[in-house]
Amino acid sequence: MSFKLKTILLFLGISLIPYALTMFVMGSSFRQEQYNAVTQEMNTQLGLTVERIDHQLTTLKNDMAFIVKSDVMNDIYTQDLDRRISSMLLAKKNDMKIEGDFYVVDQKKSIIASSDFSSIGKKEPPSPFYTIPIGSSFSQQQIGTLMVTYPLQNFKPYFSNTLQRHYYILHPDGKVELRPSVFDESLSVSRTLSVKPEITIVLEEEKGFAYQLLYKYERWFILLLILGALFISAAAYYVATELIRPVITLADTAKIITLTGDYTQQVSIHRDDEIGQLSNAFNTMIHGMDDALSEITTLNKEIEDTQREVVFTMGSIGESRSKETGNHVKRVAEYSKLLAIYSGLEESESEMLRQASPMHDIGKVAIPDAVLNKPGRFDEEERRIMDTHAVLGYEMLKHSNRSLLKTAAIVAYEHHEKWDGSGYPRKLCGEEIHIYGRITALADVFDALGSDRVYKKAWDDEKIFALFREERGKHFDPALVDIFFDHLDEFLTIREHLKDTLEG
Length: 504
Known about the structure:
Blueprint: H1 3-14, H2 16-68, H3 79-96, E1 102-105, E2 111-114, E3 130-135, E4 142-148, E5 165-170, E6 176-177, E7 186-192, E8 200-206, H4 207-210, H5 212-260, H6 274-321, H7 326-342, H8 347-356, H9 369-372, H10 380-387, H11 389-397, H12 403-414, H13 435-449, H14 461-471, H15 478-486, H16 488-497
Antiparallel strand pairs: 1-2, 1-4, 3-4, 5-6, 5-8, 7-8
């Protein structure tokens, strides 16, 4: 049986997707039913509570309307009647069993009767809950106002609070009153009072308590999921063992080869189906790639060796045209590497600079002999021509994508730039000059001053050292000058080892 047919039959048997969809739909449906049941029950309880509070407030409002229409209100200015009104208001307060008090306020905002006798004669009480105007039955004019203060504590008897469920009052500005505690997670329903729409009653229930039945059934649901997962895991193990594991082995071997570059890796899969054929083809391919890679590696090494040899030879050619010896470029190369290492460059980068530095004067091959080998000082036009060798060298090398030639291009272009910006060809200054250019500049000048030329004799060391100290921070990078003097013995050893004589 083929691998393809085995895979189709296996997944048809497992029916993984229908199982997952069914469990998801069942779980979501059950959770939604529980949520609807809880919120419906909470809304029912809240509705009954709000209905009782509305009834209480409606009764309060109706009783106040009845009081203001009583005949005794027509003589509210009589002191004795004020006392009688106060007694009636006190009786009404006690009868309704409310906190707060009733007040009768005259047109001057003074309290002339109250269920709280001590407040008579004071100014209008703050924040009345209800106010009803009192009109004279004779003149039909307003002669006062009946008010009631009704603290929201009066709602507490209607709130059947528990540790898991409680009521509280929410005002339009977001202010909350009578909230016993705050649950970490909760469900809540709310409803405004019909007779006092600015007050909202909220019923809040702790989510863990509200969903306790749901959580009970969810444990069974989880058990069912676990059983299903075990079944799927067993099926997956069979698939991995019989079918997929060879594919994983092939993939892992390919990753190892990619990461390590070890093309000697082989896979051992003995099967008669397509997977076996694939593994055999894989092994054959890797073996062929190993042979090809070995050949490519050898060729690359030959190319790199040839490239280094060509670079050095071209550098030597450039120097020989100006009647300088090949050892000049060798010394400059060694000086450059020494400076690079001590200035903090990696060994590989320092070695790259050593190999590239012989090309620093390659542009001289394009300078006419009459200028290049003139024994005396250059005139202005000759100096201009001679200075073009930096740009000419850069133009020769800049098009290469090889790291070595890229480095050589930088060296050729910038080895005559000076730290103070007075060099050429671009008058770069400071760290605008590439570290390769700064290093080669110092190495080149040190060797040139200490060597005989057709147009000059070699300087003695003390004269060279004095110049370097003077040109620190002018011609040369100060840090490189410091490195030079800190390791002077090593530079002198290189010079001694590679000393030469003037040719021609």
